Backbone:
């Protein structure tokens, strides 16, 4: 297995674990407050490493602007869209629709980067989306009073998440430093989520210490996941990285079942896991051939 796939799998593991730690944090804080803690926490980590990982002599203005634009959308705006989707539809439907992100990532790579997407990658992305849908879906998931317009929230999140991966790839083609992408993107994301948190009405008062710590941990894990994703995109096409990253709900489901007792490993979850793993294994095999 090549380095890009290993980096992508490691990123998916971190994203999946970050979902677990955020679920624990959400027992004491709402999602928007959690985002205003987790994203700045990762930003501080990136800033602390910047003097050792970024050479200013290699600075590229075009790449920096792209990284900043990506940071505005992901994780900042995607986090807020996910929050809104969870309010309207619940986490089950939100997660299921989010699994379509690699399809949008590959479409953006074709349109804006001129990437050639092999049929195996498209099939793998569809397989991952189907597997994630099975992992996430539960009977009666749609809430009472459901409106079709509410689907715009998770669909918009999936589109932006996919487009952000193609955008990051475009920036990395100009300046192939994953740490620079992380620092610049997270600075913009931090400003966006912190501003959104300060402007909202009904902001909670005192923040519980344990909730704060769990979201700091979530931010560090997700920051590592983003760095690994950028490192993978720096050396591989979007069509290799995006389907693997999208498999992170598999990690979340298994970790929740094993450690939080929040999931029962029924036939649906096992089938979703098998489909997701098979799709990634097939993608890995086709890249190695």
Residues:
């Amino acid at each position: 297995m090549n380095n890009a796939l290993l980096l992508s799998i490691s990123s998916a593991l971190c994203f999946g674990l970050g979902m677990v730690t955020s679920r624990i944090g959400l027992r004491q804080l709402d999602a928007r407050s959690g985002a205003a803690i987790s994203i700045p926490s990762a930003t501080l980590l990136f800033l602390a490493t910047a003097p050792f990982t970024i050479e200013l002599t290699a600075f590229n203005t075009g790449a920096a602007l792209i990284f900043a634009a990506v940071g505005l959308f992901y994780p900042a705006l995607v986090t807020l869209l996910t929050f809104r989707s969870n309010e309207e539809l619940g986490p089950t439907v939100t997660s299921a629709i989010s699994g379509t992100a690699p399809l949008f990532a590959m479409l953006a790579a074709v349109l804006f980067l001129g990437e050639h997407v092999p049929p195996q990658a498209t099939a793998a992305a569809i397989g991952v989306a189907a597997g994630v849908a099975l992992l996430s879906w539960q009977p009666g998931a749609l809430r009472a009073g459901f409106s079709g317009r509410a689907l715009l929230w998770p669909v918009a999140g999936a589109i932006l998440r996919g487009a952000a991966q193609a955008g990051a790839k475009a920036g990395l083609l100009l300046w192939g430093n994953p740490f620079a992408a992380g620092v610049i993107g997270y600075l913009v994301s931090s400003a966006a989520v912190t501003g959104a948190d300060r402007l909202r009405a009904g902001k909670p008062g005192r923040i519980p210490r344990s909730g704060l710590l769990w979201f700091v941990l979530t931010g560090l894990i997700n920051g590592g996941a983003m760095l690994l994703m950028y490192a993978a995109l720096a050396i591989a096409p979007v069509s290799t990285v995006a389907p693997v990253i999208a498999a992170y709900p598999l990690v979340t489901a298994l970790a929740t079942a094993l450690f939080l007792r929040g999931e029962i490993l029924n036939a649906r979850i096992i089938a979703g896991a098998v489909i997701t793993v098979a799709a990634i294994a097939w993608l890995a095999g086709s890249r190695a051939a």
Remarks:
- The chain has one domain: 3-288.
- The radius of gyration is 18 Å.
- The CA atoms of residues 209 and 237 lie 41 Å apart.
- The mean pLDDT is 87.
